[in-house]
Write a structure and sequence with these properties.
It contains 16 helices and 23 strands. The protein is α+β, with helices and mostly antiparallel strands. Helix 1 packs across helix 6, helix 9 (245-252) packs across helix 14 and helix 12 (374-400) packs across helix 13 (417-427). The protein binds adenosine-5'-diphosphate (ADP). Residues 266-267, 311-312, 314-315, 327-328, 330-331, 411-413, 415-416 line the site of adenosine-5'-diphosphate.
Length: 498
């Protein structure tokens, strides 16, 4: 009896396997961290072999902790850190180099060479600016810098993948017939996929000098990718769902309608707004990406906006100012005061991202009087996350014309109820936190389960999805406008400082 679905969540710092039941509840899980290899400033690598070994192990942990065998697993879903680039030899199964992680900026020089001063060169085709973040320049770096790599690639001996493809290939047999595939959401982050055709774009491959034989086949996120090989604990179980992490979270939040949105509050924030079948090109510095695709259906597209510093501002209060001992204390401290006391903290620690895009901006704390104390600073820090979220949502609204009716939230900061209430107040829409906040793993499980009929359709998912808590806006328009106006003045100071 197929009672469960298993989701593999291959993240930036760890790999997890989570088993879900038919109600979408977590039954068991396993997790292992992997090494962050930083050999030079700006370089971040992972050992792909370590990631694969960890994947096998966490699958074992999750199954044994709930006493399960493969016969009880209906299907496997995979979600992963996006853009991180692995190239391996298909006859030995060995990576030719450590994986180059999405945060790695070593390819800035390649970006400068290719952009000719115009980083929007490929934006119409791919939805993305030319930046070290995306996979293409990481592939170029590997082909140029690993001895013999270009010749082997030209001879069709090497394979490229983001970590979903790397795990899929290994899970389905590796050198003995592993399947080399990825899904549309991961492919949309490489800078090599045409957003309209959902296939690798020949003109881009030519410009980047990347051989087509290196690339995985692109499939819908909800489709049959392959069958797990015979040596695995999951042998003969099908892999039927793959989504990049932010898109998986969007799927796990059931943001299936045009205008549905989710915001993940972690170290930084990731907002995704479903724009339906429309490819919306942003004028406000948001990225255009594929939200998901179900086999046999048109894809859903999305706008994505990221904020660099949100949860990490709370870490800064803890580590650099020492005014709290742990992240959760910020709420207690913020609640010792009524409001921000006139103080605004704009954490432009590494410049400002969307919608300002000023890398030279620097952080400010303004509005100080003798009255302001550490409670106000804690409060201003929480408010900074809500104000920045409001800016990015406003940018998405201007680009897409959709008006938001609610915001679904997840990530480490959403435990903070003071922040959630203020967020609802500033956005003037309800903010909703689901019961299962592991939305990334849940989204991949939903995708995998849908394909095999474990869940019948999206309506069935709507029925099992459970809200944990909802915050309704209760602020007056007048106060909201005043706070936003003051925030905007504070943001201006970060630019004046530059
Ligand atoms: P990531 O996935 O980016 O590592 P998480 O989703 O685990 O991040 O969230 C961790 C972040 O949330 C940290 O930056 C931490 O400072 C912040 N955080 C954790 N708990 C709270 C809290 N109660 N209030 C505010 N921020 C919090």
């Amino acid at each position: 009896m197929n009672d469960y679905v298993i989701s593999i969540d291959q993240g930036t710092t760890s790999t997890r396997a989570i088993v879900f039941n038919h109600k979408g509840e977590i039954i068991s899980s396993g997790q292992l961290e992997h090494e962050q290899i930083m050999t030079r400033p700006g370089w971040v690598e992972h050992d792909a072999m370590e990631i694969w070994a960890n994947t096998r192990e966490v699958i074992g942990q999750a199954l044994t902790r709930a006493n399960l065998t493969r016969h009880q697993i209906a299907s496997v879903g995979i979600t992963n850190q996006r853009e991180t680039t692995v190239i391996w030899d298909k006859s030995t199964g060995e990576p030719i180099h450590n994986a180059i992680v999405w945060q790695d900026t070593r390819t800035q020089e390649i970006v400068d060479r290719l952009s000719g001063g115009n980083t929007d060169r490929f934006k119409d085709l791919t939805g993305l600016p030319l930046a070290p973040y995306f996979s293409a320049t990481k592939i170029i770096w590997l082909l140029e810098n690993v001895e013999g790599a270009r010749e082997k690639a030209e001879d069709g001996k090497l394979l490229f993948g983001t970590t979903d493809s790397w795990i899929l290939w290994n899970l389905t047999g590796g050198i003995d017939g592993g399947v080399h595939k990825t899904d549309v959401t991961n492919a949309s982050r490489t800078l090599l996929m045409n957003l309209k055709t959902l296939d690798w774009d020949e003109s881009l491959l030519k410009t980047f000098e990347i051989p087509a034989s290196l690339l995985p086949e692109i499939q819908p996120s909800v489709s049959e990718f392959g069958v797990v090989e015979s040596n695995s604990l999951l042998r003969e179980v099908k892999v039927t769902g793959i989504l990049g992490d932010q898109q998986a979270a969007t799927f796990g939040q059931l943001a299936f309608e045009k205008g549905d949105s989710k915001n993940t509050y972690g170290t930084g924030n990731f907002l995704i707004v479903n724009t339906g079948d429309e490819i919306v090109h942003s004028k406000n510095g948001l990225i255009t990406t594929v939200c998901y695709q179900i086999e046999g259906q048109a894809p859903a597209y999305a706008l994505e906006g990221s904020i660099a510093v949100t949860g990490s501002l709370i870490q800064w209060l803890r580590d650099n100012l020492g005014i709290i001992e742990n992240a959760a204390d910020v709420e207690t401290l913020a609640n010792t005061v009524e409001d921000n006391g006139g103080a605004y903290l704009v954490p432009a620690f590494s410049g400002l991202f969307a919608p300002h895009w000023r890398s030279d901006a620097r952080g400010v704390l303004v509005g100080l009087t003798r009255f302001v104390n550490k409670g106000h600073i804690a409060r201003a820090s929480l408010e900074a996350t809500a104000f920045q979220t409001s800016e990015v949502m406003e940018a998405a609204r201007n680009d897409s014309g959709v008006s938001f009716k609610e915001l679904r939230v997840d990530g480490g900061m959403v435990k903070n109820e003071t922040l959630m209430q203020f967020q609802a107040d500033i956005l003037n829409i309800p903010v909703i936190r689901p019961k299962v906040i592991e939305t990334t793993a849940l989204g991949a499980a939903y995708a995998a389960g849908l394909q095999v009929g474990y869940w019948k359709d999206l309506d069935e998912l709507e029925q099992i999805w459970q809200e944990d808590k909802r915050w309704e806006p209760s602020m007056t328009d007048e106060l909201r406008e005043q706070l936003m106006a003051d925030w905007n003045k504070a943001v201006q100071r970060t630019l004046d400082w530059a």
